[in-house]
Write a structure and sequence with these properties.
Number of strands: 0
Protein name: 5-bromo-4-chloroindolyl phosphate hydrolysis protein
Number of helices: 11
Strand content: under 5%
Helix content: over 70%
Distance between the termini: 58 Å
Keywords: Membrane, Transmembrane, Transmembrane helix
Organism: Sphingobacterium lactis
Number of domains: 2
Length: 261
Amino acid sequence: MGWATKKSRPWEIRQTIWTILSILMFIPLPIHIYPLVMMSQASKAKVRSWMGIAWVMLGIELALMVSFFYFFGALSQAMLLTLGGSMLSYVVGNALLLNQLKPYLRRLELGEVRELYWISTIDSQKRLEISAPTIDTPQFFVERLLHWRKEIDNTRIHKDIDNILRLFQLLEKKDKREAEKFLVRHSTIVNVLMQYDELENAKLNNQVTFDSKRKLEDVIRQAAQAIEQEVTNQFKMGMLDVSAETDVYIQTLKSRNLLKD
């Protein structure tokens, strides 16, 4: 487990190597690299607000660079203001990068499961994930499962969620229409996870809470088992179809005397 995701820590470090370099390169050459790093992260994570901020900060860095070359050679007040502005830009820019680090890593983690689409801001997406009453798309379903996986502190539920995600991916690759039906049949899973998280956060150590949490854990476990059986049945049906098709194909070849009995 990493600091911000369920991926390994070396994976997280590899994804943030340019952020680390941006912090280390405090001398502008000729500008600080943090706006470019921010653009790269915005493009990979597909967050519009980050891209907008990156362009603004790049404009500031370019203006400071022009000012530096214009006043170069004279230790004037304008040059001192330029140097001070450059240092302030470095501090603010890299602070923004660090603030974006966790959501950036989580978006990359999601990108390994689903193809990402552009969102306005991270906060607006979180509010949508939590408050939406229905599961509209496969990506939304996956995002909400990953969200509650991060919020819930129960390794058994983590394993069940991982299994559900893996099985859903298999089903979606096999038959997208069945995957859409899957969302209708199993949307309750997200509600159960939400209720479990509420019980965890309530921190009420009594028998009622304990029994409720155990019941919800059983629901998630049984749901994972049922989904595994459902996906297995889909693959069985597919194999039967293939078997029937191949039998007809072989018989056709034999009837045309292309194969011997």
